[in-house]
Fold this protein.
Amino acid sequence: MQIKEFLISDIEAVKKFTDAQIGVGYYSFDELKENQRKSVTTSGEISSFVLLDPTTQEVKGLRLAFPPGNWAGGKGAKLRPDLWPFQIHEAAYFQSLFLSAELQGQNWGPKLSQKSIEIFKKLGAKGIITHSWKESPNNSSFRYLQKIGFHTIIEHPLYWIDVDYVCPRDGKPCRCTSIEMFLRFEKESA
C-alpha cells in the first residue's frame, strides 16, 4: 500500500471509495473538492491523505484532515469549542478516516493519521478536534481515537441527521451519535 497526499486528481477515485465504504452521497464531488482545498496549508503542504493499492491504483483508505484556520465544523451541526482545551484557530480537525474492510486492523489508520499530525505539529497547532462515530462496528472509531491519545469532550445524539445520505447502519436519516474528542499536542522538550 502507498500513502500519498490527497490531490484534486484523486477526487473521482475518492468519491467511488467513499460511496462504497460510507454510503452513497455522504460526500458529493463538490464537497470532496472543497475538502481537498481545505487540506492545503498556507505553506502549500497537504494535510489529507489517501491510501492506494499500487497495483490497481484503487483508493483503499482516506484521512481527511484540515489545518487550523481552514475549517469551522464537521459534517454535523454540533461543535462545542467552549469545552476545548485550546481555541478553534489553534486546532486542526480530523474530518474522516475510512479504510477498506480488508485493510482494517493492519495499522493503516494510525499511519494515515500520523502523516496529518506531523504537518499540524510543524504548523504549530495546539491539537486536533474530531467527531467519532459511536455506533461504528465494535465502537472501533472511538477505540481507535482513544488509542492514539484522544479524549472525550461530549456526545452529540443524531449528529448526522441532517446529512443527506443513506447511513450504512440505519438508513436515512442517519440517527447515529457522535463523540466529540480532542488530542492535545505536548510541547517538545528542548
